[in-house]
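Extended Data, panel c. Modelled sequence:
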Amino acid sequence: QVQLVESGGGLVQAGDSLRLSCAASGRASSTYSMGWFRQAPGKERDFVAAISWTGRNTYYADSVKGRFTISRDNAKNTMYLQMNSLKPEDTAVYYCAMRSGGSYYLEASYNYWGQGTQVTVSS
């Protein structure tokens, strides 16, 4: 019933910026908290950022705090991840997810996922 589609990934150089978007559709999609995870080749999927359904509360991994900003526009059923000062270690597939309950930081707390969008940062 819920579909999530990411967009905005690409190939950039270190220090550049990208803005990822996640378009949500389906019943109750505007009233769920959402988050971003990423997975580098050969690595586990890691938490990046999350946002409550109202947008009042945000959470960030230490590795991206101060560089990334998560936001959402419920009128458009869209979530964003503004990524500034990108580093090569940010290279990964980025996934949009919707939380069903539990910790914002745990993958198991999210039960709806997008297909992912590739972000590659070169030196």
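Residues 100 and 111 are 6 Å apart (CA to CA). This feature is highlighted in the accompanying rendering.
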